[in-house]
């Protein structure tokens, strides 16, 4: 995914994704990335107005936003983590565990944080890239694996 416009946002949603309880992993490889540029996973996407956005920034932070009716709020504000490699080129394996109202977030096998939030209990899955400034951002996503969680 390559964002070529200042403060641009690009996303891709997995069509026909219907799992409610699952664990997913995907590899993100930023090749052009700096500062507040960000990339990550969209979870429980019912529309672009209703979703969770798990983001890594190119300065080594992670965060989680909940978007409801188009209004974003920081469920987890930006935190600096040694698990998130700064800059590019780099490689990160993002993991998200989703069951009921609980969501757990991982980077490179390290648990970062979890939340309990019943406002979005189902929806699609996707990836995104966002330019934090005027420069271009390029991130390659690969090796998506989704495991269904059994009761």
Structure description:
- The protein has one domain (2-148): Sandwich (Jelly Rolls), CATH 2.60.120.560.
- The chain has no helices and 12 strands.
- The chain has strands at residues 2-3, 9-13, 22-32, 38-47, 50-57, 61-68, 71-80, 92-99, 102-107, 110-116, 124-130, 137-148.
- The N and C termini lie far apart (35 Å).
Radius of gyration: 14 Å
CATH-scheme architecture: Sandwich
Which fold name is given in CATH as the topology?
Answer: Jelly Rolls
Tell me about the largest β-sheet.
Answer: 6 strands, antiparallel
Describe the structure using short key phrases.
Jelly Rolls; 151 residues
What's the helix and strand layout?
Blueprint: E1 2-3, E2 9-13, E3 22-32, E4 38-47, E5 50-57, E6 61-68, E7 71-80, E8 92-99, E9 102-107, E10 110-116, E11 124-130, E12 137-148
Antiparallel strand pairs: 1-12, 2-11, 3-8, 3-12, 4-5, 4-11, 5-6, 6-7, 8-9, 9-10
In a few lines, what is going on in this structure?
With 151 residues, the chain is mostly beta strands. It has strands at 2-3, 9-13, 22-32, 38-47, 50-57, 61-68, 71-80, 92-99, 102-107, 110-116, 124-130, 137-148.
């Amino acid at each position: 995914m390559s964002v070529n416009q200042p403060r641009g946002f690009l996303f891709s949603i997995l069509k026909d994704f219907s799992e409610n309880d699952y664990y997913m992993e995907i590899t993100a490889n930023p090749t052009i990335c700096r500062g507040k540029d960000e990339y990550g996973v969209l979870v429980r996407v019912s529309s672009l107005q209703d979703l969770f956005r798990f983001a890594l920034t190119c300065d080594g932070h992670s965060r989680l936003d909940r978007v409801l009716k188009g209004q974003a709020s920081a469920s987890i504000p930006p935190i600096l983590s040694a698990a998130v490699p700064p800059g590019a080129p780099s490689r990160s394996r993002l993991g998200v565990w989703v069951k009921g109202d609980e969501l757990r977030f991982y980077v490179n096998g390290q648990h970062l944080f979890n939340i309990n939030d019943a406002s979005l209990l189902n929806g699609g899955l996707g990836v995104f890239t966002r330019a934090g400034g005027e420069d271009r951002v390029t991130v390659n996503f690969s090796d998506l694996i989704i495991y269904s969680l059994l009761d």
